[in-house]
């Protein structure tokens, strides 16, 4: 114990032996007596613990006073090897260490190179992570501002124009810009640039081997066009009935509905925490209804926004079931096709509503074009960030922008309307927000939590023995300091 084999001791032993033969007063008989022991000791290194124990002997104290550090020098001095000059041996050893490099220099240089590569790799990873987090913050702010801004502009528009379906139709037509905007980004960023026709044909494969045929249009695009229009119409119609804070927080329940439908239809993995989140969402809906006293006006508005959240969840689940996952170009083309469906088949509905005076306006000059166009631009921006923001940041950060729009709308409603934030409404908002955040947890969150707890336990176990070792070593040092020197008894 305390002694280990030195890896490259053969050459070093020869050097020390040759250095010792230089003294003119060396006795050959005495050298032959101790030279085998010196060669054996040269291959050995003494641990620090043994050195500490040896420090209290008189001989070692004498040795350390003249600068003796190696074992063979101490043995020579203790056994009375006359003619030995320790300072000369140390000087020779220092000269040899300067002249010839140590055998550990090459591994040390290799370790430095490896450490440099690892540090550069860590720097690149941290820089990439920071860049992704920075863009994530930008996207979160964009999603929050565009979603809350479009909600508030829709509320202002209804003060002058009571036409939620017409506003839905007008804003959906702007989806036609998705594919042109995507192609501009493709030309700017892609190394292999394609013509618009080539890019269109390649993205059309998303609808099938034959591309975007009439059958594919009616079977794979038209149902989603109906769900898209219905989701936006119910959301806008709910804004007419209740305040924007309640609408925005109740729409956050769509994530819980997505989980329930995915679990039933897509047979997704069952997660208890998401079941809890769904229960919290339902409880929040009930409490939100109770906040205003179950009046017919508020109940209708809450039912409309819950229906909007349900159709949004149905849209997402059916998209995953029928079409699977889409690339950026395919998603952009799909949304542009929805705009084409809206223009071709939904345009007749606002016309009918206008002539039946359900959604009527006196003249086109009375239409608040600024509010309508601003709402459409903000809604387009929101959908762009929601669908293509994952290219530059994490999807969880994008979803946080939706729930952060709730406090923004609450602040605006507090100063612009007569909303009352009673205890029931505040608790309902907190419960729905908590359920939304629970749904953002990844599927492997429990495994990550177990690993984290295991690492913390291992670190605590490692710290406790180290602390005990420090205490024991401190006690030993105190006892050694109080131990009397052996030299006082020899005289």
From TrEMBL:
Residues 22-31 have a biased composition (Basic and acidic residues). Residues 135-289 form the EamA domain. Residues 1-31, 469-491 are annotated as: Disordered. The keyword Oxidoreductase does not apply. The keyword Transmembrane applies. Keywords: Membrane, Transmembrane, Transmembrane helix. Pfam families: EamA. GO terms for biological process: thiamine transport. One of its GO terms (cellular component) is membrane. The chain crosses the membrane at residues 133-154, 174-191, 212-235, 247-266, 273-291, 297-319, 331-355, 392-412, 424-441. This is EamA domain-containing protein. It comes from Phrynocephalus forsythii.
């Amino acid at each position: 114990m305390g002694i280990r084999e030195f890896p490259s001791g053969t050459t070093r032993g020869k050097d020390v032996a040759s250095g010792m033969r230089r003294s003119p007063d060396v006795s050959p008989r005495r050298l032959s007596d101790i030279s085998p022991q010196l060669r054996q000791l040269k291959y050995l290194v003494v641990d620090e613990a043994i050195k500490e124990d040896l420090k209290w002997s008189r001989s070692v104290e004498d040795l350390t006073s003249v600068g003796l550090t190696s074992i063979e020098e101490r043995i020579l001095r203790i056994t009375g090897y006359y003619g030995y000059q320790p300072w000369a041996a140390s000087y020779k050893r220092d000269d040899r260490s300067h002249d010839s490099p140590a055998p550990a220099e090459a591994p040390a240089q290799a370790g430095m190179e490896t450490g440099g590569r690892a540090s550069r790799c860590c720097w690149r990873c941290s820089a990439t992570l920071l860049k992704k987090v920075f863009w994530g913050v930008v996207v979160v702010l964009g999603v929050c501002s565009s979603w809350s801004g479009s909600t508030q502009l829709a509320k202002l528009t209804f003060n002058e124009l009571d036409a939620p379906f017409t506003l839905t139709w007008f804003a959906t037509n702007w989806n036609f810009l998705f594919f042109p905007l995507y192609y501009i980004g493709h030309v700017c960023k892609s190394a292999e640039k394609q013509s618009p026709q080539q890019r269109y044909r390649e993205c059309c494969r998303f609808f099938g081997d034959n591309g975007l045929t009439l059958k594919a249009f009616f079977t794979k695009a038209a149902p989603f066009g109906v769900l898209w229009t219905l989701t936006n119409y119910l959301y806008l119609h709910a804004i007419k009935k209740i305040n924007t804070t309640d609408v925005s927080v109740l729409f956050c329940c769509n994530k819980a509905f997505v989980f329930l439908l995915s679990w039933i239809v897509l047979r997704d993995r069952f997660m208890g925490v998401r079941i809890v989140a769904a229960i919290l969402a339902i409880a929040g809906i009930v409490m939100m209804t109770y906040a205003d006293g179950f009046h017919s006006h508020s109940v209708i508005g809450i039912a409309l926004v819950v229906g909007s959240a349900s159709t949004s969840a149905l849209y997402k689940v059916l998209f995953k079931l029928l079409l699977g996952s889409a690339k950026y170009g395919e998603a952009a083309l799909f949304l542009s096709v929805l705009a084409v469906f809206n223009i071709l088949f939904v345009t007749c509905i606002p016309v009918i509503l206008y002539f039946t005076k359900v959604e009527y306006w006196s003249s086109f000059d009375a239409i608040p074009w600024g509010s309508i166009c601003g709402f459409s631009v903000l809604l387009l921006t929101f959908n762009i960030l929601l669908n293509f923001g994952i290219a530059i940041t994490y999807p969880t950060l994008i979803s946080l922008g939706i729930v952060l729009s709730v406090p923004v709308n609450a602040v605006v409603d507090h100063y612009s309307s007569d909303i009352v934030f009673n205890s029931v409404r505040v608790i309902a908002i907190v419960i729905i927000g908590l359920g939304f955040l629970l749904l953002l947890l990844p599927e492997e969150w429990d495994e990550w939590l177990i690993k984290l707890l295991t690492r913390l336990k291992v670190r605590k176990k490692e710290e406790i023995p180290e602390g005990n070792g420090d205490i024991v070593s401190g006690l030993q040092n105190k006892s050694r300091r109080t131990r009397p020197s052996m030299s006082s008894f020899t005289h």
